[in-house]
Amino acid sequence: MDEPFAALDAMTRDQMSVDLAEMASRLGMTVLFVTHSISEAVFLSDRVFVMSARPGRITAEIDIALPKPRGLHVRESAKFVEHVGDVTKVFERLGVLKDRQHTNS
């Protein structure tokens, strides 16, 4: 799935994420989900693969250790925040994200 929720409003996007996760679990499906949203990737995934810019290559694989089934409340957990931070750091190392406040302090 290549960014299937990109055009949705925030609440519909959240509900579609919950629905997709439940359906994939119930049907025993594997889903390859492409997104530019780090939190969406962490919420939906068992593993997050970070790709480089052209040429697209996998530059990192991060295992997501969050219990299932996942409800939206998991986004408030320390482990979720930690995983989002881990993925964010990969993008910072690649130079895709630049945290100016962090680098100037």
UniProtKB/TrEMBL annotation:
Alphabetical UniProt keywords: Transport
On whether Transport is a keyword of this UniProt record, the answer is yes
- InterPro entries according to UniProt: ABC_transporter_ATP-bind (IPR050166), P-loop_NTPase (IPR027417)
Identification of the protein by name: ABC-type nitrate/sulfonate/bicarbonate transport system ATPase subunit
Q: Which organism is it from?
A: Arthrobacter pigmenti
- Recall the taxonomic lineage recorded for the source organism: Bacteria, Bacillati, Actinomycetota, Actinomycetes, Micrococcales
